[in-house]
Amino acid sequence: MKNIQQAQSALVNDTCTDCGSFVDVGAVIDEFDTVLELELNGDNCQQLANDVIAKAQSRFDAVTAESEFAADSAKVNITFSCSAEKMIFQLENGL
Asked: How far are the Cα atoms of 15, 19, 22, 25 from residue 4, in angstroms, in the given order?
C-alpha cells in the first residue's frame, strides 16, 4: 500500500485503507448520465411502465419520461435532473 501512496500525486489522497486501491469518483459516476432506459416485456408491461414512471415522478420533482409500447413490450426513458437521482432510484427499486 505504501507503494501506491507514493505513486499518487501529492494532491490526491483517496487510497482505500482496506484494499490499497484508489478510484476517481468522477470516473465511476458520469454527471451527465441522467437517463434511465428500461425495456419491459410481458402481458402487463404497459402497466409496469406506467408504475415505474409514476414512482420516479413521485420520488423526484423534475423527472420526465417517454415511453413506447408494442404488443407485449415497452421501452421507457426516464430523465432525472442529475445522475445521483438516477442512481438512488435504481438502488431503491432494484433496477
From this structure: 8, 11, 9, 17
